[in-house]
Model the fold of this input.
Amino acid sequence: MSIISVTAFTDGGCRGNPGGIGGWGAILINNITGTALERWGAERDTTNNRMELLAAIEALRALKQPGMRVTLHSDSQYVIKGISEWLPGWKARGWRTASKGPVLNRDLWELLDALNAAQAVNWRWVKGHAGDRGNERVDLLANQAMDALRDGRPSSGERRCVWAAPAA
Done:
């Protein structure tokens, strides 16, 4: 069986941070077929950091088998540095930061850590609002989810779409 390769983009945001309406968006692209799965959702009384984490979590949750090769792009330094640099220290210190305080959003970090361990994830930072097609798309999904929640419409979902031509 061949290893499936996926490119993912994630983004989260919050209007009225902290404590406002937040939204997240994710897109997972099959690098062989060019097909994609878009996912989005929104919550009340949240923070930007929680939505950024939730976007990455929901992207990895969508993967139906372990051991997939994933390149995950996020414009959140909090997510990228947290998973790549800070997490081992937090765990070694009993979920305490270097300054001895409790790790914020520990519930989501623990979930992201477990999902990350099940896949072969390459975490990449991408500059937000700089014209990157994937980042722009997930930003739009997150904002549409926030608008829907604000307006009392369904604010979460997923859909399949064509992202690119299949690889040769």
